[in-house]
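User: Structure with guanosine-5'-diphosphate, tokens only please.
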Amino acid sequence: MLLQSRFFFSSVSTPPPSLLSHLFLLPTKPRLASLLPFSSTFTTRAQLAVSLPLEEETHDSNPPSLLSPFVEEDDIQIRIPLDKLFVPPEVDISSAAASGRVLKGSNIVLGPYARNAQVVTADFVKSSVRTEDCPSDGIPEFALVGRSNVGKSSLLNSIVRRKRLALTSKKPGKTQLINHFRINDSWYLVDLPGYGYAAAPHEVRTNWDEFTKNYFLNRETLVSVFLLIDASIPAKKIDLEYASWLGQNQIPMTLIFTKCDKRKKRKNGGKRPEENVEDFQNLIREFFQAAPPWIMTSSVTNQGRDEILLHMSQLRNYWLKH
Ligand code: GDP
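Assistant:
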């Protein structure tokens, strides 16, 4: 079964031209959050405003809103135009935007399939050399991938709230393995080896490419690739190529921007994380029919952790239903 037919990124209708003029992605001065018509406002600091019920297989039509009415002093507000929001299936975009159901620090609209998805159990299951050797129990999975040093192990450990779960793929260029971790006995987090390791010999890098691309193209239970991008530095060519490849091959992808706590760069001529996030998206736009979902994270502050889990839960529950 084709991945694309199981889950798709829906496109949204374009807002009227009169609204387009003031819809942009831009940090503004801290102030109280207010929702603008046909846009989404959020803060870069992750905070869940409500507690959610336990994960269920069924969905109801009224998931709680996660947009807190309060913004702390040092939060940055970002506005996202409607056509850059990620709208899950079965969501009416105008009512979602109006009620503020957008996950904080992301462009992801919360739909009816979102459930509390806190990790209760996380167990390493196996390392596979080939896609064919991966677990065959048919449960959904999400693959984490990114350049060496992007913060993948730290993020994985933060998601599962363990200090050292992700150790298996720590030797770049050496461990060409697909590592499966079973979460809550019902889905997998998959850790793929980091790419772009400068010291890796050429044949190892080529091999890595074939190895992971084969997995992306053939793994039927893969719900979405989570491509990690370091938001504390400008976009790297290799990351842009990687994202474009996923887009061109219509592999469902979520961009996870890491290290968003690193905010001191401006003095040295660098950009702030939210600016790097915007730049990256502009650079890959042409390769996607609709805006891919993205989330800003930090393993230091745990920003984005709950948002990732909610996003995964709605993708997963939708995937299970279809
Ligand atoms: P991996 O090679 O992708 O698995 O990256 P690691 O998780 O080992 O992290 C690489 C380096 O980045 C380490 O020095 C981490 O402490 C640091 N790091 C990872 N995540 C973050 C983050 O969210 N914020 C900051 N400031 N540093 C991070």
